[in-house]
């Protein structure tokens, strides 16, 4: 099948203008030239795409299907055209994935730092859970991902960036009920506490359960919040306790002043924030540079939290 982008463009204009004359004007061609291309596309598709009326055209069922796909094809072609132009001008692109419990807190600083270093860099961001990011990496849909290490995947290069410690978060009343004092507080002391976690599928939930020595079926475990923001608001209102990563602390406490926190005794539970890429992807310096940018931003956030 040898349809052309020009034919799809003409057909899209015809569907929008619902008139051959107006569509020809929009496409800057003569009406006969546009009609010839529409007829050729109909021959390729095996049926009429529009019902021709005196002053109007109406899409046929086949025409509606073709129009939907034409939008996708033309959109992809436009992105390819922009990519080619960017390459010719010396612009580079980076597609970066981050898990939801890191993205909102790291991205502003990371994107600002990348832009300050290289104005020619075009960054695309994808926020998804670990399993989805690993699948996207394998498929070549993204270049690198920021998540908790170890990733659990094979065929990847993993670069540790910094330690993100966990604090206990809740209302003042809830925290006051703990039997252990703050100087000797350990995650395993929370056995009978009402622990609230993100819905299943978030790696932060798995990490919290592990450090607390509990499983999904333990008494008092409530998994259902879809974001750290929702979880923080719930525990601040006294609905339970949760483990809050330092990375999110400054942002969430600013939004929710009533949130109270306690640090665990040494050794404090933590997750390792890391950057990963496919083994088959050549570094050529970009991965090392990106890791250093994210490391500096992340360490700056957690250092400010520890100093407060």
- The CATH topology of the largest domain is given as D-Maltodextrin-Binding Protein, domain 2
The secondary-structure class comes to alpha/beta
Termini gap: 65 Å
Query: Compute the gyration radius: what is it?
Result: 27 Å
CATH class of the largest domain: Alpha Beta
Strand content: 15-25%
Helix content: 40-55%
- Biggest sheet descriptor: 7 strands, mixed
How many H/I helices?
11
- Mean of all residue-level pLDDT scores: 83
What order do the SSEs take from the amino end to the carboxyl end, as H and E?
A: HHHEEHEHEHEEHEHEHEHEEH
Globally, the shape reads elongated
The CATH architecture of the largest domain can be named as: 3-Layer(aba) Sandwich
Domain count: the total is 2
Strand runs, count: 11
* Stretches with pLDDT under 50, minimum 5 residues: none
Describe what you observe in this structure.
- Helix 1 crosses helix 3 and helix 10 crosses helix 11.
- By secondary structure, the protein is α/β, with parallel strands linked by helices.
- The protein has 2 domains: 84 residues, Winged helix-like DNA-binding domain superfamily/Winged helix DNA-binding domain (Arc Repressor Mutant, subunit A); 218 residues, 3-Layer(aba) Sandwich (D-Maltodextrin-Binding Protein, domain 2).
- The radius of gyration is 27 Å and the shape is elongated.
- Helix 5 links the parallel strand 3 and strand 4.
- Strands 3, 4, 5, 6, 9, 10 and 11 form a 7-stranded mixed β-sheet that branches.
């Amino acid at each position: 099948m040898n349809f052309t982008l020009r034919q799809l463009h003409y057909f899209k204009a015809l569907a929008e203008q619902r008139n051959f004359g107006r569509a020809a004007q929009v496409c800057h061609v003569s009406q006969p030239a546009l009609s010839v291309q529409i007829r050729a596309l109909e021959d390729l598709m095996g049926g009429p795409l529009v019902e021709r009326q005196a002053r109007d055209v109406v899409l046929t069922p086949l025409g509606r299907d073709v129009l939907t796909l034409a939008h996708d094809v033309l959109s992809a072609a436009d992105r390819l055209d922009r990519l080619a132009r960017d390459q010719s001008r010396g612009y580079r692109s980076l597609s970066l994935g981050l898990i939801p419990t890191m993205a909102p807190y790291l991205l502003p600083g990371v994107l600002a730092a990348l832009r300050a270093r290289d104005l020619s860099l075009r960054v695309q961001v994808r926020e998804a859970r670990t399993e989805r990011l690993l699948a996207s990496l394998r498929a070549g849909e993204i270049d690198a991902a920021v998540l908790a290490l170890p990733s659990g995947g094979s065929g990847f290069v993993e670069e540790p960036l910094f330690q993100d410690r966990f604090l206990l978060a809740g209302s003042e009343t809830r925290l006051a009920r703990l039997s252990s004092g703050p100087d000797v507080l350990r995650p395993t002391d929370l056995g009978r506490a009402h622990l609230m976690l993100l819905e299943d599928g978030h790696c932060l939930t798995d990490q919290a359960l592990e450090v607390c020595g509990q499983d999904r079926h333990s008494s008092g475990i409530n998994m259902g919040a879809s974001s750290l923001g929702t979880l923080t608001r719930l525990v601040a209102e006294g609905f339970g306790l949760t483990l809050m990563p330092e990375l999110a602390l400054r942002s969430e406490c600013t939004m929710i002043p009533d949130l109270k926190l306690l640090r665990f005794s040494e050794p404090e539970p933590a997750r390792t924030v890391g950057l990963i890429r496919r083994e088959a992807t050549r570094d050529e310096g970009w991965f090392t540079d990106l890791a250093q940018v994210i490391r500096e931003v992340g360490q700056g956030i957690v250092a400010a939290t520890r100093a407060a």
